[in-house]
Amino acid sequence: xxxxxxxxxxxxxxIADQQKxxxxxxxxxxxxxxxxxxxxxxxxxxxxxxxxxxxxxxLKDEKLLxxxxxxxxxxxxxxx
Length: 80
What we know:
Oligomer: single chain
Largest sheet: none
């Protein structure tokens, strides 16, 4: 078997294929980073919600509890 007779890809073809693969990987990385950012944002929101619930559970004074409820209700109007 003669190596010279076998068809070998040109360096420019190899480089072009590698550039396509690099661009594909960059796009995949960007998608994953966006998903990670979304997940991190959701985790923060749920953590704050949990802290609000924990703080609310500690309220003993009925007037203070009603005041906190009114305040939170006013803040969240139109967000549902």
